[in-house]
C-alpha cells in the first residue's frame, strides 16, 4: 500500500497508483521469500498479487473519495488481510493451464 500512497502523493493517475501498489507489495513479498530461501508465493499460483491489487484499489478509491487518510489505510489493510486469510483457509489459487488447451510451445491452440 505504501507504493500506492507514494504514487498518489506524487500526483499520478489512480490506475497507475494501484499498479505501483501491487508492484511494491508483490515485490516486497518476493524479496522476503528469496531472503528466506523459499520459493516466492506469487510464483506458485497463490493469489498474492490479487490481494495486493484489492487492497491498493480500495486505498485509491477511498483516497479519491476524500475519506480520512488513516481510515482509508486501515480499511485497505483489512481488505487485503481478510482476502489473504480467506485464500489461505479456502486454498484459493490461480488456475493452472491444462495440457489440453496448449501445444508444446505453451501457446493456446488456434481453433480449426
Describe the structure.
The protein is mainly α. The chain has one domain (2-94). 62% of the residues lie in helices and 0% in strands. It has 4 helices and no strands. It has helices spanning 2-10, 14-35, 48-64, 69-90. Helix 3 runs antiparallel to helix 4 (69-90). The longest helix has 22 residues, at 14-35. It starts with a helix and ends in a 22-residue tail after the last helix. The relative contact order is 0.13.
Radius of gyration: 17 Å
Please give the domain count: 1
Q: Can you give the helix content as a percent range?
A: 55-70%
- N-C termini distance: 45 Å
Which structural class fits the helix and strand makeup?
mainly alpha
Shape: globular
| Total strands | 0
Low-confidence stretches: none
Mean of residue pLDDT values: 86
Number of helical runs? 4
Characterize the largest beta sheet: strand count, sense, and whether it forms a barrel. none
Strand content: under 5%
Order of helices and strands: HHHH
